[in-house]
Each structure stands twice: as structure tokens, then as C-alpha cells.
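Entry for 3,4-dihydroxyphenylalanine complex. Fields follow.
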Amino acid sequence: MMEDKIAAIRAEIEENISSLELSAALYEFRKSFLDNKDGKISQLMKGMKDLPKEEKPAFGKLVNDLKTWAIDKFDEYNEKIKAKELEQKNKDEAIDVTMPGVKNEVGALHPDTMVIGELIDIFAGMGFEIYEGSEIENDYYNFTALNTPKDHPARDMQDTFYVSDDFLLRTQTSAGQIHVMENKKPPIKILSPGKVFRSDDDATHSPMFSQMEGLVVDRDISLADLQGMLDTFSERIFGEGIKTRLRPSYFPFTEPSVEVDVSCFACGGKGCKLCKGTGWIEVLGAGIVNRHVLENCGIDPDVYSGFAFGMGVERIAMLKYGINNIKALFESDTRFAEQFKN
Ligand code: DAH
């Protein structure tokens, strides 16, 4: 009777084991016989207690033999299945070394980044320190302290994005002039690159663009110092022989104010499409710092004077690289970017 049970278990294992193909299935099958609590072989062991005393040793031996045999059998199959599974895994993960590779394209610097880097190099070479202001300013720094109080008509020149009644996205890096002069006494010589924002959008204007601001304050600073510096700057950024000229203009924070033109680097000043036949190209605004601005920052205008200038980075980039629509600089089209690889 007991012997029949043993033979039946042995047969069950023999019959079914070869149809198992996954090690997980084999594990479950093995458990159904060898699990300490519910396994069929373990159950047999437990049944031994009901046998007459003299039959117990022989039966015990039979069950033990069965158990050893079963363990060997399961181990042997497990090895086989594992080997098969590994073979399959290697096949699935095989790498075809004859396949063409994926090319990693090398990127290019954005024209803005190149121009900003060049400008910083040029001005750092002349002893300017870099000051980076913040993109959110309050009304005082962006306008009032720059001699542009509320209701001043010059505020209309810059359509402002307001964040709240008092806070705004700076419309000009000139706001940085005030922070610098509040915190540092002359001599001051700073260059301030940064993003600015205006509600303005056409072929040459974008709601976000970059400016580069310069400020020099010391004793006896005059327009002649400004022009001398601009001559050096123009030759370095646009090429040797480029001249500058100053035209009278108006900014609330400078007096006098000037618009700065460089001689056309496309035609050498003869007149062409780029300079609209005039031989000159406007590149920046500048002037002598208005005495009210110095006073607002606690600097005595009877002792010190200064010049300031501000330029649009995209404008310089467009002139330098012959880009005719500012949108090209912000569309992230890789065909555009690729032209600036070197
Ligand atoms: N902030 C002026 C603008 O955005 C540019 C400018 C003009 C800056 C004259 C200056 C300056 O520092 O002196 O249009």
C-alpha cells in the first residue's frame, strides 16, 4: 500500500518533469513534492507515525531513498533548464557587430553665446569686471532710479511685462547700473550681460533678447574716453579699420546721449544693402551718466562722472553673421545651428 504510493510519486515525477521548460515552473513542481509542509514526499514521512512499529525502519528507508532520488532528479533538470535559458538569453542579447553605428553629432555654440563670449573677452581685456543682475526687477531699479519716473514719456519706448504692481521683467540691463553703484564706490568698470524682456515681436525684435551693458565711473571721465574705448571695441568685434561715429540721441539716464554707428564692414563705408546706402550701421546706445542717476546712488556728480553703454547681443550677432530674421536665433532649428560649427 505505502509502496504503491511511493511508486506513484516516482512515476508522476518521471512523466511530467521532461515537459517543463522554465526554471520557475520546475521550482513550483519541485515544491509540490518537497515542500516541508505540503509536499507529497513530506506528507508520506508524516504518514509513517500510523504504521506498526516494525514496519517503520524499512518504510523510512524507502521514503528517504525516494527523496534523495527526487532531489537528484530535480537538480539535474534544473541544470539543463538553466543552461537552455542562458543560451536563449545570449541569443536574445546578441549584438550584431556588422550593423552601422549611430553617429553622435557634435553640437555648435549658439551665435548669441559666441558673441557674448567675444564681448566678454574684449571688455575683460580692457579691465571690465562682469556683473550679472537679476531678470526680475522692481520699478525703481528698471526705471525710476534711471531717471525715468512714472509718467515719463521714455517709458513708452519699452513695453514692459509686469509681474505685479511693482515687479517686472527687466526691460534693460541698465537696471544693473543702479545695483552696482549702490554697492560699490568709484572707480567702477563693469560689463553686465543678460536677458531682457519687452512686449515686442517682429523680424528684428523678440520678446526676450540679450543685452550687454557697460558702466565706467571715475574722476574726469568724458565722451572722449567712451569714443576711444568704442574704437577698440569695434575693431575687435567687426574687424580692423572699422571706425565709429557718435550721433546725438536721447536716453533719460545719460546726458548727453549718443547713438553709436560703426562704419559698414560689408562695403567699407561706400554704401550697400546692409548699411542701406549710408556707409554706417547703428550698433549701440551710450552717453555720459546723467548726474541724477549718480545722485540716486549716493555718488557725488561734482566729483565723479561716468559713461554707460548698452547694446543688443542679437543685433550684433545678426550683423556679424548676416542673419536677417531674429526668429532664427530662437527657433532651435538644427539646420541653422549647424552653420555655426567650426
Ligand atoms: N538701455 C538702453 C536700451 O535698452 C540702451 C542704453 C542706451 C544703455 C544708453 C546705456 C546707455 O547704458 O547709456 O535701449
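NOTE: The longest strand covers residues 208-218.
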